[in-house]
Amino acid sequence: MGVAGFRIDMAVRHPAAPGSYALGIECDGAMYHSSRAARDRDRLRESVLSDLGWKLHRIWGTDWHRSRRDAMARLRAAVEAACAQDPHGSRPEPEHVAVMVEETPQALADAVPVATAAAPSAATAPTVTFVPVDDGPAQWSRPYQEAEDIELVKLRIASASRRNRRGIELQDPDAGGVVGDVARCVIEVEGPVTEELIFTRVRSAWGLARSGQVIQDRVRRVLRKLVTKGEILRVGDAYDRPGHEVEVARTPTSRFTRKVTQVPSVERQLTLRSVVEESPGVQRAELLREVARFFGWARLASDIRDALTEDIDDLVAQGTLDETDGGLLPGDGD
User: Fold this and answer.
1) Around Cβ 249, how many Cβ atoms within 10 Å?
2) pLDDT means over runs of 10, the chain (334 residues)
3) Is 5 left (phi over 0), alpha (psi -120 to 50) or beta?
4) Computed from CA positions of residues 84, 89, 94, 97, in that sequence, does the dihedral angle turn out positive or negative?
5) Which residues contact 218 (CB under 8 A, 6 or more apart)?
6) DSSP per position, 131-192
7) Which of 10, 105, 149, 180 could form a disulfide with 61 if both were Cys (CB 3.0 to 4.6 A apart)?
8) Dihedral sign (CA 230, 231, 235, 238)
């Protein structure tokens, strides 16, 4: 909806005045961030819309992601206060107002405010209920699943026994088949998974505290052989199982948080794209912080900043993201 050339993302109908609105709700999406003169534009918007009788409440995308509970509390208070006011100069008949709220600011802009009648009572003020459309985590994320050390140890023992190589050491040149079985299991459970994490899982299957250069070279040779045979795929800086589409990014668990070098670039870039799609117009600095929080990194260290910055540059070069003066937007590229 819009008036005087200005569009409002969402409006709450006044429960006591059919056809009128108690509050306009704006989200800082693509139209907001693409303005070259946001401050002047906001002053003009506020002046024009106020003259037309609008009361406005803004939801900031950064607040919605960083402190959603507080943002929803402020929204609830604004809606309740607006609905409590009498648009005709007399006490309105109380009604119940439900506002459907989704999990992102942009989705919230598309939500539909629904007014439902309640029993009239002059002593009862309007109440507001938020009806969650999707109360769970983002569809593009899930907790990280690890290949359990104990299971890898069992697999190593069984594989070695099957090959009549009981007790074979990881450094043994004849351990390639056993290493391959363990590596395939890790990739099946954790793929896409970086080479660094595969080293860690393989040495854990042998109960070793560290993997030196000799062990790393041996594992790399096994991985190359598996790729050549088509049993696994090389995806950028990671390995994955054939036919697997990377459609989710994985969050840390209470047991395991990956370092930035342990998160495949394809997964980092999926997260960057998804955050931009949910908060179009987000600035680079805020995008870096949001993605760092997603992966459980409390501090934006230089290695994290460098890796994510390179990912953003790649996405912009591919046309997947579009960088404007107002921030980052979803691009038209594949």
Assistant:
1) 25
2) 59 78 74 46 66 79 74 88 75 45 48 42 54 64 96 97 95 95 98 97 95 93 97 95 96 96 98 92 93 95 98 97 93 76
3) left
4) negative
5) 170, 171, 173, 175, 176, 179
6) EES--SS-TTEEE--PPPHHHHHHHHHHHHHHTT-TT--TTSGGGHHHHHHHHHHHHHHH-S
7) 105
8) negative
Helix (H, G, I), strand (E, B) or coil at 222: helix
- The answer to whether 318 and 28 have CB atoms below 8 angstroms apart is no
Per-residue tokens: 46? 């506020």
Q: How far apart are CA 308 and CA 275, in angstroms?
A: 13
Dihedrals phi, psi of 113, to nearest 5 degrees:
-75, 135
pTM of the model: 0.65
Report the distance separating Cα 7 and Cα 78, nearest Å.
19
DSSP 247: -
DSSP label of 90: S
For 255-290, give the DSSP string. Answer: S----GGGS-HHHHHHHHHHHHHHSTTB-HHHHHHH
Cα 197 from Cα 190, distance rounded (Å): 9
